[in-house]
Amino acid sequence: MQATVDRIRGAARAAGFELTRDQARVAEALAFSPRGVYAHGPVGRGKTWVADAFWREGPRVKTLRVHAHALLDALHRAVFLRHEEVRAAREAAAPPAGPADGDGPADPGPAARRDPLDEAIGDVLGDARAVFIDDLQIVDPAEARLVGRILAHALARGVRIVATSNHAPEDLLADPEWHRLAEPAIRLIRDHLTVIDVAGGDDFRARASGGGFAAGTWRVAAGGSPGPAAALLRAEGRTFPAVATADGALTITFAQLCEAATSARDYLAWARRFGAWTILDVPPLATVDPAAHQRFITVVDVLADADVRLDVVARRTRVETLDAPPLPGSVRLASRLLLLG
Fold it and tell me: Both 301 and 170 in a single domain?
């Protein structure tokens, strides 16, 4: 597998940099060890780049490459479909109304004994022999349960897990009230994956350039209303106002996007539809509700991973806009916004 590591080093040189010591450790673990890998560290240290380079340069194994937001979105959808199957099976198997025969309780049948969540995870992973989860994070108790079940399902079936994260395993779901719910996932990571701290080097995003997300801009335009909504966005039976939706581009205000009850699932759907986004009238994040601030972080996560161009028109400079009490993902947000010219 040394040839794979050499090819990754060559790809790095072609991109204009040398692998750092920590990046090389990730490449070597991917190439030489059959164990999974959990690479964590500050934003912009090349964790995702090395993992992607391994899948390009290494052995051809059927791999599911997915951002954590998209993985959980796909799992929610698959769980809903599986629950609907169970409900339909129960209704089909229900006996006619009337007195039950026998003394004991009736057998609930195979439908009641199914595990829709485990079946849904199988639907999402498919026949992949490896899964690469980019930007793994756990920010609420529900995610803790789902991530733990995904890891357990994959490991039980010999699926290799590779994950990148800004958080050390023990820092997942850091809220002390709920941290215990993440402990099963943390134990699986520590017991079954090679954990590598990618802490060294500079933030590569600070000097990156290119198309897609990185082709976007940050512009300051103080005051002035962007005007009334002239378009509607649809998501799962709901509608949201927007400024414009034309020619594969979405123009929307911060308030329309982040102060409404939108979610990562909505952003994923809209990112597939619109290849360029403009977010208008972005206020200093210290002045908005934490939920709106968190939605903005999630929007930028989704667009950066999908490589969708983002143009931001803000009331203040980037530094002034981001000067707010930190939330999960705030450092990653600042790093990703450095890519905007």
Answer: no
* pLDDT of 258: 96
Q: What is the pLDDT of residues 259-283, one digit of tens each?
A: 999 988 899 889 888 989 999 999 9
On whether the CB atoms of residues 164 and 54 are closer than 8 A, the answer is no
Pairing of strands 63-67, 309-314: unpaired
What lies within 8 Å, CB to CB, of 130 at 6+ separation is: 61, 62, 63, 64, 159, 160, 161, 162
Q: Which domain CATH number covers 262?
A: 3.40.50
Whether 21 and 142 map to the same domain: the answer is yes
The dihedral over CA atoms of 149, 151, 157, 163, expressed in degrees to the nearest 10, equals 150
Burial of 7 (0-12, 13-18, 19+ CB in 10 A): middle
Cα separations (Å) of 140 from 186, 216, 301? 14, 31, 17
Residue 83 resides in a domain: no
Residue range 216-251, pLDDT digits in tens: 999 999 765 565 667 888 887 889 999 999 888 999
Is the Cα dihedral 291, 297, 301, 303 positive or negative? positive
Q: In terms of domains, do 64 and 200 share one?
A: yes
Q: Domain containing 188: what range? A: 2-70+117-204
Residues forming beta bridges with residue 233, ordered by sequence position: 240
pTM score = 0.71
How many domains does the chain contain in total? Answer: 2
What is the per-residue pLDDT for 227? 59
Ramachandran quadrant class, 70 (left: phi over 0; alpha: psi -120 to 50; beta: rest): alpha
Token reading at 186: 């943390």
Residue 77 located in a structural domain: no
Q: Which two tokens stand for residue 229?
A: 């909504």
